[in-house]
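INTERNAL AUDIT FORM
Audit reference: QA-55
Scope: verify that the stored structure record matches its stored sequence.
Auditor: D.O.
Record contents follow.
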Amino acid sequence: MATNPYFKEYTGEQDLLHDLTIETIKAMGRDMIYIPREYVNKDLIFGEDVLSKFTDSYIIEMYIQSVTAFASQMNVINKFGINITDKVTLQVAKRRFEEEITTKDGAITHPREGDLIYFPFNKSLFEINYVEDKMPFFQFGILTTYTLTCELFTYSHEDVDTEIGRAHV
């Protein structure tokens, strides 16, 4: 049987869910600095750019979902040097991302792999490795957050020059 013709789709609960998510992240989260990567000379075969630069930055609140290996217990020493495996999982509200970042730079519609997050709490840069934007279960038919899986950023001759970065370091 088809859907009930007497009930139309109502989005009031979706707006409420967005508002509650934003309020929770603002109350329980921390201010982070989102730093988008700009590709200077992208290799289309390997999808990498050794000459990337980071010149813009945006302050946005994020919820710290989980943290792994901040106590340096997971650092591994191998024949190529030390491998630091600090990871953090963050959540950012979709609507806040659009308000704070997409409205200022229309090319950035969602968090992207390769962009950086400056974590002022321990003054570290984390690189976004994966952005979860399609969870299997949708509350009220929508997803209100992006889940960012990040690892400690390994500097490799990139140009990092942001105004906010200088003020917070």
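Auditor finding: record pair retrieved intact. The chain has a mean pLDDT of 80.
Action required: none
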